[in-house]
Amino acid sequence: MMSNEFTNPYDFTGQSIVITGGAGILCREMARALVTCGANIAILDYNLEAAQQVVDNLLSIPATGKAIAVKANVLENVSIQAAVEAVLVEFGQIDGLINGAGGNKSEATTSPDKTFFDLPQDALRWVFDLNLLGTIIPSQIIGKHMALRKEGVILNVSSMNAFRPLTRIPAYSAAKAGVSNFTQWLAVHMAQEYSSRIRVNAIAPGFFITEQNRFLLTDPGTGELTRRGQSIIDHTPMGRFGSPEDLNGTVLWLLSPASAFITGIVVPVDGGFSAFSGV
Ligand code: NAD
Question: Which residue among 16, 63, 181, 233 is the one 20 to 30 A from 215 at the CA level?
């Protein structure tokens, strides 16, 4: 590590980072933090309009990094391949990948009128595919580019429920456990087979109110916390939901040379939720 990396490890000038699902609530904030630190950002999302809006916002803040929006579906090899080619034309290389696309859906969530036994297979498969395959496929395509260059950083997005499953969301919990497991697998594989300069880690966000979980945590009529929402707050020692900026420090750290000897870990960013036994 060079000395300026000690004093300014989060200077990403000249580096380009691809963020899948980058139009989403959490990932657009990661993009803002990174572009502010000088990175060139490619927002890959299947919602191109939302991705373009994020890019327009990024370009309006005082930052040295560039930003582009590219339409891509993380479940389609050809789509990611085409997106990567577009990024390479623009930025010349890819230094980092954040596998941010993911989520749950109400059809794969148990409720008083929908038991576990009734959850439809297509909804379960949708959740598995988006979270697990949607992490693996971009890692294959961009990981290959990193293997050729013998350097790069991959950051996956796992979840609290990967450590211990949360009630009501069996597929999402199992899929995120798969993401954590895959993070360890790929970290070992890349270091052993290609380069110790390719690192793979994950963050496990605690509870952040976003589109995927709003229906579980707040009452759509009154906006008040549901029993589940209140229970989460009661089990979070810091006593609040996270806000997207809370992820920035960990994201920058895991993408930067400050974590040069760290690979294969999953870092909770959860206000203490995973440390608290409830008593
Ligand atoms: P979000 O729903 O706001 O954003 C997800 C983005 O992914 C959207 O822009 C969507 O268009 C995009 N996307 C969905 N399917 C896609 C596909 N097939 N190809 C390309 N793009 C696709 O989600 P978020 O809450 O910001 O979550 C981001 C990540 O963080 C997800 O992996 C989620 O599972 C994880 N996470 C969220 C929380 C939370 O509390 N919100 C907690 C833990 C983990």
Answer: 181
Q: Is 126 in the pocket of ligand 1 (CB under 6 A)?
A: no
Q: Taking the CB of residue 278, how many other CB atoms lie within 10 A of it?
A: 6
Ligand 1 mean position, distance from CA 103 (Å): 5
13-206+242-270 architecture in CATH? Answer: 3-Layer(aba) Sandwich (3.40)
Boundaries of every domain in the chain? 13-206+242-270
pLDDT tens for each residue of 191-233: 999 999 999 999 999 999 887 678 788 888 898 999 989 999 9
- Count of Cβ atoms closer than 10 Å to residue 227 Cβ: 9
Cβ neighbors of 3 (< 8 A, separation 6 or more) are none
